[in-house]
Amino acid sequence: MARKSVVIRLAGESGEGVISSGDILTQAAARGGYWTQTFRTYPAEIKGGPCMYQVRMGDEQIYSHGKWVDLLVCFNQEAWDLHWDSLAPDGVILYDETAVEIPEEYRPRARPVRMEKLAKEIGGSLRAKNMVAVGAVSGVISFDTTPIEELVLRRFAHKQGVADANIAALHAGEDEGADLKGSLAIVEPVEVEADRLLMSGNQAIALGAVAAGLKYFAGYPITPASDILEWLSAKLPQVGGITIQCEDEIASICSVLGASFAGQKAMTATSGPGLSLMTEVLGYAGTAEIPCVIIDAQRGGPSTGLPTKTEQSDLQHALYGGHGEAPRVVVAPVSVEDCFWTAIDAFNYSERFQVPVILLTDQGLATRMEVIHKPDTSGVELWERRTSAGWNGDYRRYAYTDDSVSPMGIPGEEGGQYVATGIEHDEFGHPGYTPEIHVGMQTKRWAKLEPLRNGLARHVTHGDERPEIALIGFGSTFGPVREAIDRAREDGLSVGAFYPRVLGPFPAEQVRAFASGARRVIVPEVNFTGQLARLVRGECGIAVESHAKCDGLPFTAEDIYDAITSTQEATL
Questions:
Q1: Is the C-alpha dihedral spanning 355, 356, 362, 366 positive or negative?
Q2: DSSP label at 295?
Q3: Who contacts 346 (Cβ-Cβ below 8 Å, separation ≥6)?
Q4: C-alpha 307: how far from chain center
Q5: What stretches of 86-235 show up as alpha helix (H) in DSSP?
Q6: Where are the beta strands (DSSP E) in 201-349?
Q7: What is the pLDDT of residue 503?
Q8: Residue 392: pLDDT band with limits 50, 70, 90
Q9: Which residues pair with 471 in a beta bridge?
Q10: What is the widest separation between alpha-carbon atoms in the chain?
Q11: Which of 84, 153, 198, 379 gives the lowest tally of CB atoms within 10 Å of its CB?
Q12: Residue among 419, 407, 448 at smallest CA distance from 288
């Protein structure tokens, strides 16, 4: 019987081709007309250690990577030992016959695959082992291998012998589980539409930044944000921009501020440890009122922590990290598609309010591949910074204005010269230490963000508008929350979710209004201390149920559904 979607998990040792196998299946599924979403885990070491790639594919848009595995592919014994308990009750197992021993009770739904043997026979090495596995998967789910062959031919366009060997390994693997062929068949793919793209969260952010007018990017490689640097290195020069790899994160943010001071839209990308290094300069950007965008692809901490695992533990750092109190904006997209639009928002907020903007993703959202609708930018409005052009009389860079946003002089503008000092200053930028100056400038710097607190910022909701059970979250948890809400409402429960895309300044009034009629307020987040729950309690004064975890894995819809149907007590 055909399924609406199927969850496939490939597992083995880093270096065996597990990740590339998953990428091939995902790309082929997207080319073949399926909607997809992926999740991957891998060790911090260059080679060795357990890794896993999960892809969910189906004929409708997919919002989470799924929990129960329909097809588990084990490259080695450790893969079985680590993942057997994630199998669905009718899940099927494919395993390398020379490397894996399956318990007797699972053998009726397990099939050995000669991964290593066929790879050596066909390709002369173990390099084609993963293609044997991909072929076996294709057979079990009745997946047309034509898109896979096209990908192989494209990848090895100048190595025909290698391409032929990989295609032969693909078909050999397809024959391995002949008796299981079609046992997990999924519905026919929908017609491939022109408005659909397959991309990762990192790629969507980079593309959104370019659409917003990015002209300068400086960064330092760090997992899981490095893809942004790599993508922009190839693409940004094509639109007249510049990409630079700096010696460290401090140099990156300083370089970005220099480019912005010169009038260009500028960005950097990092993860938690890099954001820590940038903190002092972020304070300077807030005080000197210089626009810039910082991407923080969060990972497990503290310190080096879990560099290849997902976490949402930088929220408090993004909101408050630094000495003194300098304004900033913190935004968080809820999906791969939303990464594109939130990147545009980040630049618009940064330019309009002349502040640093931190965009929070996480390893799960940054690296996952997802089929999305091609963004239509025809109606996008790009906000540009207010400059000093046309200024009459003495130029006051930090002039008090009705909206607290002052004209910013760009080098080369006549009469727009000023000193962008980090020391407290008066309207002209001259050092000033009086109480009146400091209070006045602090008031001005923070007041300009009030439109974001009072309705300008976007948010996303799902489910009941005034629910009895309210969920408040941020970022990548939205997908499984959405699926869980749909299931709970089918059960007759009144459930809804509110996800602010701007977390700083926090939209307390909107959150309070949404949760006003709820008997329970649940806050799901991937960290240890319940950082968003603390923020909601403090800003809104409402009792919430913190549903936090820090195991390096994203929530599943089942996790959220269990929280909705539990009887946990709310706390202030």
A1: positive
A2: E
A3: 212, 293, 329, 331, 357, 359
A4: 15
A5: 115-123, 129-140, 146-155, 160-176, 201-211, 226-235
A6: 216-219, 242-245, 266-270, 292-298, 329-331
A7: 98
A8: low
A9: 497, 522
A10: 87
A11: 379
A12: 419
Scan for tokens 């990409």, then name that residue: 243
Q: How far apart are the first and last CA of the chain?
A: 49
Query: Residue 347: which of 274, 266, 235 has the closest Cα?
Result: 266
The neighbour count for residue 17, using CB atoms within 10 Å, is 25
Residue from 15, 33, 40 nearest 369 by CA: 40
Contact present, 317 and 436 (Cβ < 8 Å): no
- Both tokens of 177, joined, read 């589980």
**What domains does the chain contain, in order, with CATH numbers?**
5-180 (3.40.920.10), 197-373 (3.40.50.970), 386-448 (no CATH), 456-564 (3.40.50.920)
Q: What are phi and psi of 230, to 5 degrees?
A: -65, -45
pLDDT over 70 at 367, yes or no: yes
Encode pLDDT of 69-115 as tens digits: 999 999 999 999 999 999 999 899 999 989 999 999 999 889 999 99
Taking the C-alpha atoms of residue 371 and residue 337, their distance in angstroms, rounded to an integer, is 9
Token pair of 304 as six digits: 């080096």
**Would you put residue 490 in left (φ > 0), alpha (ψ -120 to 50) or beta?**
alpha
**Cβ-contact 424, 433 below 8 angstroms:** yes
Please state the length of the chain: 572
pLDDT above 90 as % of the chain: 78
Cα–Cα dist 257/315, whole Å: 23
- Give the C-alpha separation, 26 to 28, whole Å: 5
Q: What backbone torsions phi and psi does residue 551 show, to the nearest 5 degrees?
A: -90, 5
Q: Name residue 56's amino acid.
A: R
Helical segments of 354-414, H only: 363-367
Residue closest to 92 by CA, chosen among 170, 25, 184: 184
Q: In what helix (H) or strand (E) does residue 488 lie, and over which residues does it extend?
A: helix 478-490
pTM above 0.90, yes or no: yes
Among all chains, which residue has been given the structure tokens 């390398």? 96
DSSP at 306: B
For residue 347, what is the enclosing H or E element?
helix 336-353
Sort 59 into a burial class: Cβ within 10 Å, 0-12 / 13-18 / 19+: middle
User: Could you tell me how far CA 288 lies from the centroid of its own chain?
Assistant: 30
DSSP string, 508-531: HHHHHHHHTT-SEEEEEESSSS-H
- Take residue 379 and report the two structure tokens written for it: 């109606």
Q: Is 308 helix (H, G, I), strand (E, B) or coil?
A: coil
Amino acid at 164: D
Specify the pairing of strand 329-331 against strand 502-504.
antiparallel
